[in-house]
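Hi P.,

Sorry for the delay on this. The queue was packed all week, but I finally got your sequence through. Input first:
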Amino acid sequence: MSSVMDKFDMFTRFSETARIGSFSGAADYLGLPKSSVSQAVQSLEALLGTRLLHRSTRRVSLTPDGEAFLPQCRALLAELEAMETQFVSNPADLRGELRVDMPSRFASNILIPKLADFTERHPNLRLRISSYDHRIDMIKEGIDCVIRVGELTDSSLIARPLLHYRMVNCVSQSYANRFGIPKTLDDLQHHRLIDYSHSLSQRPGEFEYTTASGTQTLTMPSTLAVNGTEAYYAACLHGLGIAQIPVVGVEQQIASGELICVLEAYQPPPMPVNLLYPSRQQLSPRLTAFANWLVAMLIQVKSNTAHHT
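Then the structure:
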């Protein structure tokens, strides 16, 4: 048993060092002396007969063998955790940490306002929420699951559909005062689109809308491209162009007239929201509890939005 626990400690300390990128950072996170973390990784390397980390004065980084071993290490830790918690029946007894990544707008406007309900049900769970607004390496970052808004690219991740956002075309009152409100698709050539692009590519801005035959796109002038959700909303609110945004989270701005819905006959296609995680076999009780709560919460949010718009 002692040998098994020694390996568990080695795996944990290696995993956190790889995620954080330094021995001192991992030691601070784990509440351990730096020497014990460094020694654990050295012992693991000796056990495996290979070097897992490149050391430098500022950071450590994974070697090719470390890149190959890290997913296996995380899988073993997840399996052990699942074994330890499989018989927990009381939600209050769930312990440990859950790391979740999501778009910043989703975090601030959707999740955080409702999160007290989850933390009250699971007082011994610790949530760590990141908002990168771009694709991340879940294994390397040590993320348990991600919430993604938009169409999914091909991926080895398991996707759990959550809902579809209803989308609207919006301009601010200040934009309408300066440029007027488009009434037809032809009018869009005299307006500006705020382009949302993860890669900030050179492609022209495209206005998307749905018809009986499917989704259509229309190229239109754009003087601004952003790759973050908060920046996208802020640009719209400050009159920099037309934005195509989920109605969830802007109900108050629409009701007050701060944002104006335009071209309502040419709405963008609904935006899918998915929960992604690496493998069904590694679905821990913590992640299961969070996923089930998230689904129920979003159904309620969507119902409330439908009643108010």
